[in-house]
Amino acid sequence: MHNESIPFDPARDPIALGMSGALDGNVARFAQPRGPDLLRRSGALDAWVTLRMRHGVWPYARVPEGAPGPVAEVAEHNGQATRGINFASHDYLSLAAHPAVHEAARRALCDAGPHSAGSAVLLGNTGHSQVLEAALGALLGLEQVVLFPTGWAAAFGAITALVHGADHIVIDTLAHASLRQGAAAATRNVLVHRHLDCDHVREQLARIRAADVVNGILVVTEGLFSMDADSPDLPLLQHLCREYRATLLVDVAHDLGALGPGGGGVMASQGMTGRIDIVMGSLSKTFATNGGFVACAERSARRQLQLFAGPHMFSSALSPVQAAVATASLGIATSAVGDALRADLLRNAVELRALLGAAGLHCLGGPSPIVSVWTGSEASARVAGMLLAQEGVFVNPVEFPGVPLGAARLRLQLMAQHASGQLRRGARLVADACTRAGAGRPARAMGQERHRG
Ligand SMILES: Cc1ncc(COP(=O)(O)O)c(C=O)c1O
What we know:
2 domains, seven-stranded mixed sheet, binds pyridoxal-5'-phosphate, Aspartate Aminotransferase, domain 1
């Protein structure tokens, strides 16, 4: 078990010796290089990434072999491939391997070819995309659905289409980059509220409405936060939005299909299906393909999205194969088979959290497909991730800008098909790696005090 009282000191730790520089710094330092030559002014970034690669602590852009699944073979940057347990892909209900999903892809390829060949606003729609829109609308209880090429595009497109410069946005401090970047592009009137803190939301709405009764306010949150595995009080947020004539947008990328009765996500668990103003999400976590969507009850808002969401209007639509895969996955997720897969997934989440907790590690949030193990320091996340990859356990070490500075963690993503033996071996090796890397518990209660760097 690791010792909480000894902070990781790269200058003294035996693993870190000889890794000088590779454990220091973060990408924030390189975000805005100076100089007139746009192509060559990122030399310092290149040197830092190369150094980290050389020391095995650059966990990004590795290449897995084969389809996503509980076991993967992953090629490191030095070309060496390791086979091991995969906690680093999102395929929460294991639908990427489901025979009916593969069959749907084959049929769509034969019927409609591999390509949408146009934006949805031009001739990029297909029968497959229309069926998907209807199926999503039924699950969400919101019939006006607009599809996007990715979840990122859906978030950015929705916010920038619906909100303009005179409007206001109130957004959770831990909201996903797609939502934050959409907010920043839409208006300068962005207020960030403390994570999950509805009192803070109320305060900010009151402050805005005291000065402006004319313009719109969009409140932005997530159904299941992608790094902290926790959820807001959706009924209260929607109530506050009504009270202050604001509009609520909830990103359900990580919970729709994977959690909640019938796969309806946290919204369904909280009795809010069909009662949230705007719901957006991704197909890539549970529905076995790339793609995103935005749904609401207002036809006029759908028109606004179709014509003013850049990634819908000016980007090619989902391919027929992607749409058919998503529809088949949705069909399974909302069936009795989906209930059984969700039960497997939740059992895995409870078991893995219990194993990690018993080993003295701190898992953020509650049981869900996302199990985030707190390390705090970026250096310890890097070292633990490297040690795990060497042992054949693939996790995502997450640091700024994915999470705030000093709030690094190892993010493990579960699938319904992970076996108990894989969880036990994984937990033991995660605990060993965290001990060797000096990962510690958070000093204070999570979420409230942290701010994105
Ligand atoms: C909360 C959240 N929203 C949106 C996205 C973007 O989804 P996609 O991968 O489909 O672009 C992600 C992906 O990581 C996410 O975590």
